[in-house]
Amino acid sequence: MFTGGCTLAAAEAVCDAELDTLQALVDRSLLRIDRQRYSMLQVLHEYAHERLEEADEAGALRRRHATWFVQLAEAQPLFQSVPPHSPFAPESENFRSALEWANRRGDNETVARLAAPLTFLL
Prior knowledge:
Blueprint: H1 8-15, H2 19-27, E1 32-34, E2 37-39, H3 42-54, H4 58-75, H5 92-105, H6 108-121
Antiparallel strand pairs: 1-2
């Protein structure tokens, strides 16, 4: 579900991942880690997404992904200036993905909960 990579905390919250599992995937070159962010090659990302769709698990993970980023956005005090190298900058693709997913589903509450804080964060 992560479009811009993710932190360990995000992988744990959204995917129930564990550090040992992530490290095993890194060791097998199925994940990459750079500056404490995990990511997949695009072809692997697309394959994994297809498998989730086939198993009818993509919707639940999308919901957990959106929930994680709503909580992350809401944890930041409104009107606070966010420097360009803040923890939010690397998450911009994930915020956008969560917002687009919620909008496509007509989930106006999630759209509002993401959009309001993001107005000040990104």
